[in-house]
């Protein structure tokens, strides 16, 4: 009886995942391959026609899709790297050292990570306008650091805390300094948390619309979420779906590469 209940629960969970996650993505892909999507045909699980016309349409300079794709990649990758470089020392201190009020500091950090960005967008816009950072990818990256760094510090602090103290103490007895212990002991043993944090930070930056939309003034700094929001609403359903499919690909690639790296490191 218990085994049957377990199998039923597993099946129900899998069905819910398919219904709420996989199915919408599949329909998006189907519509992106239909050259006349939204033209009156009912939406099915299989495309009525197969064509890459919607993807070819996005190459038109009218939409500026691929420049926006490049901007998003540049901002997200840069923001992720800078966030991790800043977060690792802070997370090590909060996770491994006897820092006063570290629990309160971590609570404040997670609060900052989910603080409404629209509240600080206006003063940031004024500050950036005075310093030549408005309508620039650099300004958007700096603005995104306001929530990506707290996210990275919070998650990495708990990942570092799970590393056994005895291992680090052994490295200390061998003469390893703080930097060597972090690079050679803590980070390798907390690689699962590092990979998860990297994915979270990259996706948070990739999906940003508040800062990217409000600090953008021209196509020179237009990212994918902003560009997609400007696509035509009428008669361009297939193009919108094609843009969404292409927007998902970099995220899937980053996750796949990091998971492969994690699996390879786990086999060593």
Q: Calculate Rg over CA atoms.
A: 23 Å
The CATH topology name of the largest domain reads MetI-like fold
DSSP E strands, number: 0
Oligomer: single chain
Helicity level: over 70%
- N to C succession of SSEs: HHHHHHHHHHHH
How much of the polypeptide forms β-strand, as a percent range?
under 5%
CATH C-level class of the largest domain is Mainly Alpha
Instruction: Write down the domain tally.
Output: 2
Q: Structural class of the secondary structure composition?
A: mainly alpha
The CATH architecture classification of the largest domain is Orthogonal Bundle
Sheet with the most strands?
A: none
Cα distance spanning the termini? 41 Å
Count of DSSP H/I helices: 12
Q: Given the C-alpha coordinates, what overall shape results?
A: globular
Name of the CATH homologous superfamily of the largest domain: MetI-like
What would the average pLDDT be, to the nearest integer? 87
Low-pLDDT residue intervals, each spanning 5 or more residues: none
Overview of the structural elements:
- With 268 residues, the protein is an all-alpha fold.
- It is built from twelve helices and no strands.
- The relative contact order is 0.14.
List the helices and strands and how they pair.
Layout: H1 2-32, H2 53-57, H3 65-96, H4 102-113, H5 117-130, H6 137-161, H7 165-173, H8 178-189, H9 191-206, H10 210-214, H11 224-229, H12 237-267
Helix pairs in contact: 1-12, 3-6, 3-9, 4-6, 6-9, 7-8, 9-12
What key attributes describe this structure?
single chain, 12 helices, MetI-like fold, globular, 268 residues
């Amino acid at each position: 009886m218990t085994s049957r209940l377990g199998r039923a629960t597993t099946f129900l969970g899998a069905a819910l995942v398919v219904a709420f996650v996989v199915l919408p993505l599949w329909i998006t892909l189907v519509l992106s391959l239909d050259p006349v999507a939204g033209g009156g045909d009912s939406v099915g699980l299989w495309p009525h026609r197969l064509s890459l016309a919607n993807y070819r349409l996005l190459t038109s300079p009218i939409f500026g899709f691929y420049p926006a794709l490049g901007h998003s990649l540049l901002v997200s990758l840069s923001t992720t790297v800078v966030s991790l470089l800043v977060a690792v020392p802070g997370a090590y201190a909060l996770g491994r050292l006897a820092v006063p009020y570290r629990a309160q500091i971590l609570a404040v950090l997670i609060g900052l990570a989910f603080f409404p960005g629209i509240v600080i967008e206006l003063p940031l816009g004024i500050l950036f306008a005075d310093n030549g950072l408005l309508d620039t990818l650099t300004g958007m990256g700096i603005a995104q650091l306001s929530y990506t760094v707290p996210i990275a510090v919070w998650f990495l602090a708990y990942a570092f805390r799970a590393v056994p103290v005895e291992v680090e103490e052994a490295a200390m007895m061998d003469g390893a300094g703080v930097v060597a212990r972090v690079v050679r002991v803590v980070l390798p043993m907390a690689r699962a948390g590092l990979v998860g944090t990297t994915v979270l930070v990259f996706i948070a930056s990739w999906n940003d619309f508040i800062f990217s939309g409000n600090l953008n003034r021209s196509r020179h700094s237009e990212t994918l979420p902003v560009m997609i929001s400007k696509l035509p609403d009428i008669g361009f359903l297939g193009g919108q779906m094609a843009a969404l499919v292409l927007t998902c690909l970099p995220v899937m690639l980053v996750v796949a590469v990091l998971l492969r790296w994690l699996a390879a490191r786990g086999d060593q």
